[in-house]
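Encode chain A's predicted structure.
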Amino acid sequence: METRLEENAVVPGAPYRLLERLGEGAFGEVWKALHPTRKKLYALKFLKDFDDLDTLRNEAKHLDRIPVHCRGNFVALCEIHDGEERDVPFVAYEYVAGADFEKLLSKRFTEEGSFPPLEAAEIVYELARIMGSVHTLPDRLVHRDLKPSNILVVQAGPPWQFKVADFGLGVLAISSTRAANLTVSDDGRQMRGGTPSYRSVEQNDPEHLGGN
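Encoded structure for chain A:
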């Protein structure tokens, strides 16, 4: 990664000013950034590998399939910069000012312990409602990497409000009885995807429901 990412730096070839590093992973770094003309905050994900752009384009394609009235439940992907005229590719997401659910759960269990049963049920119901809004689409959009770190907490309830992020491994499960849809990309490539400890049975064993 040739571009030096630091606070107050302006992204080469783009108007964003970096404010704060939010995290880092195998893919690269995520920064909170300001678009001065729009006077709006964004989360910029800088990529280490140009091959990851295909995953981001896949995410953008799937997010476009979500009906407008449901999109408030998912983190919006605003722009993809391919890096061909810049030092590093990056993608701009809407900025969500809450912690991810993984961090919140860790803090909660450390300081207070588990949730009361009714509150835990409310959390599960709200997440099921959100994912159900895309599972019931005609094309049956499936996330394939749903986990606490991909769930952003808009409001720590009750009532709880969430936004789901990272649809890059999403797939269209056109038939609810074909488990192979969960292990093959939309263009036919084998791609199990997902985080091992959070994968569904169908992702770990596509023959479980008769898949290939």
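The CA atoms of residues 42 and 124 lie 28 Å apart.
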